[in-house]
Amino acid sequence: MSDWIGLLFLVLLAVGVIVGLKLLSKPQTRTSEEFERNAAENTTMLGASMNALNEVMNPSAAKAKEVITQMKEGRYQKKKREGKAGGNFDETEGTEDAERSEPPAVAGG
Fold first, then answer.
1. Rounded distance, CA 13 to CA 20, Å?
2. Please, are residues 88 and 97 in contact by the beta-carbon 8 Å criterion?
3. Domain-by-domain residue ranges, the chain?
4. Cα–Cα distance between 57 and 60 in angstroms, integer?
5. More confident residue, 70 or 85
6. In a 10 Å sphere around its CB, with 0-12 CB exposed, 13-18 middle and 19+ buried, how is residue 89 labelled?
7. What is d(CA 76, CA 74) in angstroms, rounded to the nearest whole number?
């Protein structure tokens, strides 16, 4: 009787392993947004060190990556507006250069 119990246990174990492996081998369906989010969140130490080494060895690629990021965000070659609202702050003189910049657009007029 104990031989049958042992054999049944081994058969159930083998069936469980086969079913589990089938479930694990099924590919997950993901959108490109989910993939990009997971790739950005799961940066490993090895990947980060390889990126840093690549930036040191190839600085033009690092600059190109920064430019691509700026273009996607819509701020490539645009001056930062610092200081008071409505005017550009000139750090060399410490004054607003309102006479050199265009006046802000007025809504409805």
1. 10
2. yes
3. 39-75
4. 9
5. 70
6. middle
7. 6
pLDDT of 50 above 70: yes
DSSP 104: P
Q: In the structure encoding, which two tokens stand for residue 20, read together?
A: 């589990």
pLDDT of residue 40: 77
Give CA separation, 73 vs 26, 30, 76, 102, in Å: 36, 24, 8, 23
Q: Which residue has the tokens 């060399």?
A: 92
Name the residue among 105, 107, 71 with its Cα closest to residue 86: 105
What's the rounded Cα separation, in Å, for the pair 39 and 23? 23
Count the neighbouring beta carbons within 10 Å of the beta carbon of residue 38. Answer: 10
In sequence order, which ranges of the chain are alpha helices (DSSP H)? Answer: 2-25, 32-41, 45-57, 59-73
Which CA distances in Å does 30 have to 41, 44, 59, 108? Answer: 15, 21, 33, 45
pLDDT surpassing 60 at residue 89: no
pTM confidence score: 0.31
